[in-house]
Amino acid sequence: MAEVSEVLMSVLSTIRVPRPGDRVHKDECALSFASPESEGGLYVCMNSFLGFGSQYVDRHHKRTGQRAYLQITRTRKAQKEDDNNSGSGDPPKKKPTRLAIGIEGGFDVEQEQYEEEVKVVLFPGRQEVVSDDLASMPDVVRERVSLSMAGVMAADSVSHALQVQQWDGEVRQESRHAPELKQLDNGLKIPPSGWRCEICDLQENLWMNLTDGKINCGRRYFDGTGGNNHALQHFQETGYPLAVKLGTITPDGADVYSYDEDDMVLDSKLPEHLSHFGINMMNMEKTERTMTELEIAVNQRVGEWEVIQESGATLRPLWGPGLTGMKNLGNSCYLNSVMQVLFTVPDFQTKYVSNIDKILDEAPSDPTQDFKTQVAKLGYGLLSGEYSKPAPDPSDESSSSSEPRGDQVGIAARMFKALVGRGHPEFSTNRQQDAQEFLLYFINMVERNCRSGMNPSEAFRFLVEERIVCQQSQKAKYTQRVDYMVQLPVPMDQATNTEELQEAERLREEAESSGAPPPPVPRACIPFSACLAAWSEPETLTDFWSSAVQAKTTATKTTRFASFPDHLVIQVKKFTFGLDWVPKKLDVSIDVPDTLDLAALRGTGQQPGEELLPEVAPPPLMTPDVEVKGILGFHGNEEDDSLYSPLLSPVLDDSTVSQLCEMGFPLEACRKAVYYTGNIGIDAAMNWVMGHMEDPDFSAPLVLPGCSSAPGTTPTESVSEEHLATIVSMGFSREQATKALRATSNVLERAVDWIFSHLDDLESMEVSEGGRSAGDSEGTREPPPGPRVRDGQGKYELFALISHMGTSTMCGHYVCHIKKDQQWVIFNDQKVCASEKPPKDLGYLYFYRRVAE
């Protein structure tokens, strides 16, 4: 022990006690998904507090020279089997009664108990020191090591804040109207049953106003069920704020809604308020579903959830390389599904998994914050098969089940989710998200981090050709833009079961008028060919400013492929808005084919004999009294200010800008919309906004033609060296980074967006040793190269789909089906099974790969 004591004394300066703000990674390895429950446990560096599995701790020791690590090992305690669990990996049979996670009545989460062992391990000899050994060591050693061990174990793990502990969608606040609610002494007494709406005689979804005792029906839901809005109308007429849902009253409480506060609320005086109308809570029994139960039921529609998850079949669990499940971290199924599909694409495998050793060797000192390292770690975890093993049975080892458990050990991508979501208002939260939005967001992150070397996003990148023809002059304009996804509209009027839908609507109206429960609604069947035709058919543009006739006219826009990518992503635009701007999901079945031939949709470019629209800009936005004068910098003079183009304050219609801003669009985008449409009105500006919402610089400041700087920025303005270093580290030159920062008022986030939206211009900036662009002269500059895209024949085969269950992207659940070795496999978070009937007609995102010629 004396030898160990001497070693500890020699490395004492490298053993730190965690301070507030230190990031302690004691739950997950920085380079793998090893954890304290893994074989060999987790080794936490006692200096940097990074965690490493037994496979990677030697690598860290050799690279940094760090010798002291705290080894944390956890062993699962045996648990008795829960009566509510089938023991076969199926969900609990007990139905949730609260829209919550991790609390009584909510959706169950795994709560496991562990025995924990902690000791200090000294490298390279792996000498071990437990707490009891410290008693015989010098005071200075004992004190420092003990404090460090205690500090690490007491510190909150970085992943702790990212884990789902409890989430309750049913947390309600006390209504401000409840304590002093005035109730009318009208002598009204409510019977314990037999209620009807006083206006339409509806007998369900009834609400009693707690001020006057009037009983009326509730709101009509988006699918036509519910009530006829008579309780809401009563509030609008009287202003009486609180209502209780009849049928939900029990001795434990009831559903109370505040129309004034527009939310479900608590009423601490509910027994008193009910007794005013002769209702004794203690004698009431529940006869109606609560609002939470209704929401859960809507989000678990049998027709969609069971089909997509293949719940009716006994699925065969799969294990092995490429068949690794991902734990749900709390509404992270959208991320799980997208990443499972992406790492089926060879480009992502080659970029991140084939080079895993090189990437880890080159990882920075804190690999938890390195994008390439964390993506490679996730890819290797999914494809290696190391974590694709049956999950240990939490029940007593003596009990056995004839059915194999469907759950896997899997991987929990907490570190990855925290890194890619950092700073994003949605992806940094535990709320449900749109898988399509996350896919594009992640592709954008890959683009930013692959300026040099192979870029796997090129597998999805393609060019779109847009042909606009002026109907008055018959002259055409061709433009090309980069895209990563085809967004197919859903033409509901093309349903093949129109008669069935019309009959269902007639029955619904009859039921509504008679107060009977609404009949089940059939699913609309839409041909895939109709969706593709809706995407490719000519679109009429009104208020198109034609440079040929120098006026507004009508034009047609046709969209075609200018190139075909190696992998084609198709989104079915199921999510839309109703007339009341409430988001809803179209319940449709689309016969998506296994193979596609899109050759007929390739663009042809300018046709023989076809005249092009002249390249003339719209009329300038200046009044006659505006003086055109340059803004002079340090190098300017009054005789020649050509070095800096005139920076004018454009005369914009403030009322149009204000109207657009009131719709929720960014101010700078509104200013650009008014400027580029020639101040001709709200309609044209709105069309511009809708056509440019996807532009990377949509909300960037308005930069006038000929100006390289945003308003208020001069070309000689100094830029932040820290911001410069950040952009240069992404693969850009110092001159390019400087130009981006000056164009965006020295704001780093905007500069990064700006630089990626001006790649074509930046590619042509050849920087000489003096730091000045070799292409200063417009006459000597080469035309900027176009974006790199792959091209080939337009024949594809389906290899994956992501499906969504629920009423909107903000709720529900995602799963993905992937074709591996001619076998469809369902990835449902931690469950990975052979698919018997993939729901190809109910998908949301479809992934095709090019068929080899």
Q: Could you walk me through the main structural features you see in this protein, from its secondary elements to its overall organization?
A:
GO terms for molecular function: cysteine-type deubiquitinase activity; zinc ion binding. This protein is an alpha+beta fold. The protein folds into 6 domains: 4-78 and 112-159, Herpes Virus-1; 206-301, Herpes Virus-1 (2-Layer Sandwich); 304-391 and 406-459 and 794-850, Cathepsin B, Chain A, CATH 3.90.70.10; 462-564, no CATH class; 604-614 and 650-702, Helicase, Ruva Protein, domain 3 (Orthogonal Bundle), CATH 1.10.8.10; 721-766, Helicase, Ruva Protein, domain 3. The strands form 7 sheets. Strands 16, 20, 24, 25, 26, 27, 28 and 29 form an 8-stranded mixed sheet that branches. A 6-stranded mixed sheet has the order 8-13-12-11-9-10, covered by helices on one side. Strands 2-1-3-5-6 form a 5-stranded antiparallel sheet. A hairpin with a 5-residue loop joins strand 21 and strand 22 (583-585). Helix 9 (346-353) packs across helix 11. The protein is globular. Residues 81-93, 97-103, 161-170, 298-303, 396-404, 618-649, 705-717 and 764-785 have low confidence and may be disordered.
